[in-house]
Write a structure and sequence with these properties.
The chain has 439 residues and is mostly helical. The chain has 2 domains: 217 residues, no CATH class; 189 residues, no CATH class. Helices cover 83% and strands 0% of the residues. The protein is built from 20 helices and no strands. It is globular, with a radius of gyration of 22 Å.
Length: 439
């Protein structure tokens, strides 16, 4: 019998204590995604371009398959809330089997068709043979990334988010150190090997954490391979919308490029620089949502709807405060960042529009809140429906109208972004109300 929710703590302090390690882990993950290009500084342009192409394919694969960790967190946190450690463990074991079933095919396809994938994605912009070899080496880290994703969801459900941060630090540290050391002997091959070793290091930290758990919580690897089909089906039922959402989200930058295809290089650069800055705000708010998800799922497992509502109300004030702070700080810093990175021409394009870009964090806070309520209610389709509708039914046509036909440039793409978030928030809040959960 577990005492995991014995205090029924749904305070803002607990949400923050769960969220801040996840926020730092998210920022580290963003940095690791761009690590290869930085570590390859000084190499030929062909090598850099090939690494970018290979890294793009790897990022899509990692984000898609590790999204199953959301299903682990939902199922395990509900079980912990019901004081049933064995059920929480069984949910994580079922996710491991599900990840094996859905992951081995894509892994073999990516490894076998790496040169073709890179050629189709980059055309003549990169050396397909070199990019394919780079991808074949780095994709060897994919099984470790998926294992880490499942264990990360399990640890977050158990409230052990600091071990998630430690695993992220291990991934980044081993990636950098191994890549720098091996590059001296093997060149770009050493950097690719370092990336795979980084993923293995993060998984190793979480495996060690699992070994230190009590007998009722420790995952049993041999049982994971024989997890019941019903349990695997329940995990996949929650996980497949999250996997598709991750896949489409990783390609959302291409939609922005399409919208701004007729704009000047300064406008495209300004849009990208602002997008990267606002992404930091999204990472922080999303981490707060992950902490809230554990709390809400626990209350669902404990069948305490009164605490569910209290936790949501506490989160409203927390998210509002974080979003306001990000808006003020981001709006002040945005022009300086753009000028220092993009130069005076790009800064002139941005002007006061940095404030409009950072105003998106208000929508993002509301989005994360509604999305978390839906996830805690086992409605993982809400995010997928909202994202696809907002991206392709609203943002794309609005962006084409404002940027290509009306020639609004950066202002047009920012307005289209706000329309996207408004659509997203509307859909997830309607889904949350439909789930009959208090907002």
């Amino acid at each position: 019998m577990s005492t995991h929710l014995s205090t029924h703590d749904v305070s803002r302090r607990r949400i923050l204590s769960l969220a801040w390690p996840l926020a730092l882990h998210g920022l580290i993950t963003v940095g690791v995604a761009a690590n290869d290009v930085v570590l390859l500084g000084g190499e030929r342009v062909e090598v850099l371009a090939s690494a970018v192409v290979a890294g793009s394919v790897l990022t899509v694969a990692v984000m898609t398959l590790t999204a199953l960790g959301i299903a682990t967190q939902i199922q395990a946190a509900r079980a912990f809330g019901a004081a049933d450690d064995s059920a929480a463990r069984a949910a994580a074991e079922a996710t491991l089997r599900a990840a094996l079933l859905v992951g081995i095919g894509p892994l073999l396809v990516v490894w076998g068709a790496a040169p073709w994938l890179c050629r189709a994605l980059a055309g003549g912009a990169a050396d397909p043979a070199l990019a394919g070899d780079f991808l074949r080496i780095t994709v060897l880290g994919l099984p470790f990334a998926v294992l880490a994703g499942v264990l990360r969801g399990y640890a977050t459900a158990a409230g052990r988010t600091r071990v998630v941060l430690i695993a992220g630090l291990a991934t980044a540290g081993v990636d950098v150190v191994a890549s720098l050391g091996l590059r001296l002997a093997w060149g770009w091959v050493g950097v690719a090997v370092g990336t795979a070793l980084g993923y293995a290091a993060g998984a190793a930290v979480l495996v060690c954490w699992n070994r230190r758990q009590s007998s009722t919580r420790r995952l049993r690897w041999r049982f994971a391979l024989r997890a019941p089909r019903t349990a695997v089906g329940a995990v996949l039922g929650l996980g497949w919308p999250e996997m598709l959402l991750a896949a489409f989200s990783s390609a959302s930058g291409l939609v922005v490029v399409l919208v701004l295809a007729d704009s000047s290089p300064q406008v495209l650069s300004a849009s990208r620089l602002l997008e990267v800055q606002v992404m930091v705000g999204w990472v922080l708010l999303y981490a707060a949502g992950q902490g809230l998800l554990t709390v809400l799922a626990e209350t669902e497992g404990a069948q305490r709807r009164d605490l569910f509502g209290t936790a949501v109300r506490n989160a409203v004030l927390l998210f509002a405060g974080v979003a306001l702070a990000l808006f003020v700080l981001g709006g002040l810093v945005a022009p300086m960042v753009v000028r220092s990175v993009g130069g005076p021409e790009v800064a002139a394009v941005v002007g006061m529009l940095g404030w409009l870009a950072w105003a998106q964090v208000g929508w993002q806070g509301a989005c994360v809140l509604g999305l978390t309520v839906c996830r805690a209610s086992r409605d993982t389709r809400a995010s997928l429906i909202a994202s696809l509708t907002g991206e392709y039914a609203v943002f794309l046509p609005a962006g084409l109208l404002l940027c290509r036909w009306l020639d609004w440039g950066l202002l047009g793409v920012l307005v289209a972004h706000h329309l996207f978030w408004a659509t997203f928030v509307t859909i997830v809040f309607l889904r949350a109300v439909r789930a009959r959960r208090p907002l």
